[in-house]
């Protein structure tokens, strides 16, 4: 069995080494996040260690919540001399994350309150959760669309 060296990966070897599938590689190439290697006449494109490092960078940045456009901006700064710009992008992302966390906390509180009200209802009374959702989303509703909480 021939050993595959980091500079001699086919797309199938590259997807395994990079931890992504072939379609993801092709998508990243179309988006300009990964270069497409030259295809020798009658040959197969080959990928190397730099390509593996780059795809891992993209996946790591995605796990931190960066969009593909933001990752493209980070890749333009990858030579390490633009730390202030990269830091600015990270600060902006951190603010976005904090806003999302605050939104999620508000959603959690609202759902918790509605769920408590739903659990405490007695008799044949309209479900507070359903009633709340209907009043926010359907200003003109029919009496026939009222639903009851299931216990």
Any chance you could write out the topology, listing elements then pairs?
Elements: H1 11-18, H2 22-30, H3 49-63, H4 68-76, H5 83-120, H6 128-137
Helix pairs in contact: 1-3
Protein architecture, described:
There is one protein chain. This protein is mainly alpha-helical and 151 residues long. The protein has a single domain (11-124), classed as Multidrug-efflux Transporter Regulator, Chain: A, Domain 2 (Orthogonal Bundle). The chain contains six helices and no strands. The chain has helices at residues 11-18, 22-30, 49-63, 68-76, 83-120, 128-137. The radius of gyration is 26 Å and the shape is elongated.
Relevant terms:
6 helices; Multidrug-efflux Transporter Regulator, Chain: A, Domain 2; single chain; 59% helix; elongated; disordered C terminus; 151 residues; mainly alpha
Largest sheet: none
Mean pLDDT level: 82
Which residues form runs of ≥5 with pLDDT under 50? Answer: 137-151
Order of SSEs, N→C? HHHHHH
CATH class: Mainly Alpha
Please work out how many helical segments DSSP would assign: 6
Radius of gyration, Cα only, in angstroms? 26 Å
Number of strands: 0
Strand content: under 5%
CATH architecture: Orthogonal Bundle
Share of residues in helices: 55-70%
Q: How does the overall form come out from the CA principal axes? A: elongated
CATH fold assignment: Multidrug-efflux Transporter Regulator, Chain: A, Domain 2
Secondary structure category: mainly alpha
**How many independent structural domains?**
1
What distance lies between the first and last C-alpha atoms, to the nearest angstrom?
62 Å
Classify the oligomer.
Answer: single chain
């Amino acid at each position: 069995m021939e050993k595959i060296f980091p500079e001699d990966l086919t797309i199938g070897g590259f997807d395994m080494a990079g931890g992504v599938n072939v379609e993801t590689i092709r998508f990243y190439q179309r988006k300009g996040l990964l270069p497409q290697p030259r295809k020798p006449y009658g040959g197969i494109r080959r990928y190397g260690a730099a390509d593996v490092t780059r795809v891992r960078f993209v996946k790591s940045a995605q796990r931190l919540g960066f969009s593909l456009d933001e990752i493209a901006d980070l890749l333009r700064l990858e030579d390490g001399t633009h730390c202030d710009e990269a830091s600015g992008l990270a600060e902006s992302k951190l603010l976005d994350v904090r806003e999302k966390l605050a939104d999620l906390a508000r959603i959690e509180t609202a759902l918790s309150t509605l769920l408590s009200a739903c659990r405490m209802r007695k008799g044949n009374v309209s479900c507070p959760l359903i009633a709340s959702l209907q009043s926010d989303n359907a200003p003109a509703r029919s009496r026939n669309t009222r639903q009851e909480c299931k216990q």
